[in-house]
Write a structure and sequence with these properties.
Elements lengths: L4 H11 L3 H19 L5 E7 L4 E11 L12 E3 H7 L8 E5 L7 H28 L5 E9 L5 E5 L2 E5 L15 E12 L2 E7 L3 H11 L1 H4 L4 E8 L3 E7 L7 H6 L4 H9 L4 E6 L4 H8 L5 E6 L10 E7 H8 L4 H10 L2 E7 L2 H31 L1
Parallel strand pairs: 2-3, 11-12, 14-15
Antiparallel strand pairs: 1-2, 2-4, 5-6, 5-8, 6-7, 8-9, 10-11, 13-14
Helix pairs in contact: 1-2, 2-4, 5-8, 9-11
């Protein structure tokens, strides 16, 4: 271990670690080895000698009177008589330090130190990676696809660290190729027995929120705010937006000229259809807007709900608008429920205007039919 401090800087630099952490890891490994090889109960310390560029392993012993010394104390204490054989001017209560010569220890013990140092450095490295990634949890990260297994789980390289995008966190239908650049949300990071584990997601509403902030300057600047997002990944999403600036149209800002902004986001999300609606602090108005593109006639919100269940919104809607409110496979009404927190009960109202048109058409058909019958009888009569 002589001149070990010469290589501390190199180890620290190579692993991106503070030098003092590397020194502490080495000292800890030396003490563990000494306890294992010499005496588990003994007191060992490692002294840093930066002038000689050494780390010295020493054992500390407390001097005690011969009369009180016993075998149970031999790991940490030394009788005064024995201490005076080693040091002339020594008294009861003094602390003696014995340097342990590592070169005199067996090869296996020294190898154990180096193995433990490697393990300690790896742990420190993982802790540093963990700390660096923890601050990015919930944010977009960009990485390169390095592997896709048979189950569809995708390994993505983030710098020098590998992360996992599980199949369950991937948008339905999308496929990745090795070398492809992928945007995801950093969902979680933790240290396991097998090392650091980073999980990514492309199905969380947070991805849509972050993409909107990247694509829409008004959202990034805080002029337009996102109240809530509901997503069925890869199929459809609803975004509730609002602004306190009367000069800004929150929906127009998000959609962009000719839909250029929202279309760019949709493309990133494998063609996911995105509805932007304006949030209202008036629940009835917000509920009505959430069912867009359907037009509702009236809304009645239940004041109280059964414990554990969502409150209910009773919505009267024209027959012609019902399919729009429900959406394909019920997607629109499911998203509206996720967005507002209400369960919906749709009450179908006959479209009066359509009914009037149908009635007028029937009457005209009957008049037309009567006219033809009269004309036919006239010709028959003349014949």
């Amino acid at each position: 271990m002589e001149k070990i401090l010469d290589i501390v800087g190199a180890i620290a630099s190579e692993n991106g670690l503070p030098q003092n952490q590397v020194v502490e890891a080495i000292k800890d490994s030396m003490i563990k080895m000494a306890k294992k090889e010499i005496n588990e109960e003994a007191t060992f310390v490692v002294i840093e000698d930066w002038h000689a560029k050494e780390l010295r392993l020493v054992q500390k012993m407390i001097v005690c009177d011969d009369e009180v010394f016993c075998e149970d104390m031999k790991s940490t204490h030394i009788p005064l008589s024995e201490a005076r054989d080693l040091v002339e001017n020594v008294h009861t209560g003094d602390e003696l330090e014995y340097q342990i010569n590592l070169e005199g220890m067996n090869r296996n013990a020294v190898n154990n130190i180096f193995h433990d140092i490697t393990f300690q450095i790896q742990k420190l490295n993982e802790q540093e990676i963990l700390k660096n990634f923890e601050k990015d949890i919930g944010n977009i990260v960009i990485g390169q696809v390095v592997h896709v297994d048979k189950e569809g789980n995708t390994s993505i390289e983030l710098g020098e660290t590998r992360a996992l995008l599980p199949l369950k966190n991937r948008i339905k239908g999308e496929k990745f190729k090795v070398g492809q650049s992928v945007r995801s949300i950093l969902k979680s990071v933790r240290i396991t027995r097998n090392g650091i584990k980073i999980e990514l997601s492309r199905t969380t509403p947070k991805l849509l929120e972050e993409l909107l902030a990247l694509e829409v300057p008004e959202i990034k600047d805080g002029e337009v705010a996102i109240h809530k997002i509901a997503r069925i990944p890869g199929e459809k999403a609803k975004v509730a937006l609002y602004t306190n600036n009367p000069k800004i149209d929150p929906i127009g800002s998000a959609v962009g000229a000719r839909g250029v902004r929202i279309n760019a986001i949709s493309k990133e999300l494998h063609g996911e259809n995105i509805d932007c609606i304006e949030y209202s602090s008036v629940p009835e108005i917000f509920v009505a807007k959430s069912l867009s593109p359907a037009q509702v006639i009236s809304i009645k919100l239940q004041k109280e709900s059964v414990e554990g269940e969502k409150p209910r919104a009773i919505v009267q809607i024209a027959k012609s608008q019902k399919s729009k409110a429900i959406g394909k496979a019920g997607i629109n009404i499911r998203l509206a429920s996720m967005l507002t927190g209400y369960d919906f009960e749709l009450q179908e109202i006959i479209d009066k205007e359509k009914e009037t048109i149908n009635k007028d058409s029937i009457e005209k058909e009957e008049e037309k039919k009567l006219g033809l019958e009269a004309l036919e009888s006239l010709f028959k009569g003349n014949a």
